[in-house]
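Re: [help] complex structure
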Amino acid sequence: MKIEVFGPGCYRCQQVEKAVRDALSELNISADIEKVKDMAKIVEAGIMLTPGLRIEGKVVCSGRIPKVEEVKKWIEKVK
Amino acid sequence: MDKRAIFAVSIIILIFGIILAYEWGGAWKGYKNTLQQSDTITARLLEEKHIPIYMLIIVTTIEYIKHSWLCLLLAFIAAGALQEFVPKDKIIKLMGSNRGFVPYLIGGAGGPLLSMCSCSIIPIFGGLYKRGAGLGPSITFLLAAPAVNPAAVLLTLALLGWKFAVARIIFAIGAGILVGYITERVMKDKISAPEPIHIEAGADAGPEQKAGYAKRILNMLLYSWEFVKMVLPLILLGVIFAGFVKAFLPPAFIVKYLGVGIFPIMLASAIGVLMYAPSLVEAPLIRGLLESGMGTGASMAHLLTGPALSLPSILGVCKIVSPKVPVVYGTLMWICGVIAGLTFWFLVPVFLI
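Output below.
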């Protein structure tokens, strides 16, 4: 599974990454987590409000820090 | 970062370094003498209270916190409320779908509602531009949003007084609209329009949209707490840095380069365009400099260009549009900083708290 976290690397983006890692470890799933910091790529992905989260090519959340429960739901949906 | 950027940064550091090194020795020698005569607030503090110089850092920190804790608390609650209650997607859509002067107004006045963290502004700028909001309004947003966001205004109010706060709002929105408009006019024929891409605005409304008010207010406070954790260390850093400036930078040096007159305003404006400072750090820093003899005009110029522009932000924008664009709006913003500085200096010649 491919999970991408979009953001320039500020505090909020780290929180999103943490939520994703927590969700993965609670579900006992392994996935590639990629942190996308390049502005051009963030814009290309169609994310305007960082931090953004994309799972398997689909933007599931942007502009806020999702809760671990939400991330678990999204991951289970595409599994 | 590419090689050209590193080269540019090194050149700038070198130039500032030479000026600093050259002046430091001379100004430092006359430091003690200047203190006796100088009329700056720092000098008076040192004389009246008989405190050693290194204690200034601690005294400054305590004094600034006493001044600003209430406004800071309000600022954090306001930030949380913006995050929870403002429909960001709607503002973005509004900016993209109108023509003429309206998008400029929304960019200048509505932009601050969208974002608190200055690092998250470039993707919004990129998204607006690629969705066809127009180069001008996108730039207006990029320049006005960081300077006028509610937390920055409240902190300015607490530490620098209402004159600075009001002037800051007016100048930032005015300069943002002006610079955006002129840049669009200048660059219109020189760069090609962006290829429209599909942007999934509203990909996620979030579950809290449907929640009841009690739940939403709780969410708001949670967001406020997030902001406290994110921003408070930076503000403390700014306050401590202001203390260092007051303790170790000779007032004679500040008066000479950042005092009154046109040259200090031009210099302060230029530093603001190039230097990166995290949002909200500028208010305590400027207060520290003002107390050591910085002119009001130079302070205003720096407050206007400082948060709006920085070398890292310019480099980020270069990845989205042609590098000519940031050069044009950077220069225009510098001129606006000088004009704003001169105007404010004329209206408010002396800093009094």
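The mean pLDDT of chain A is 84.
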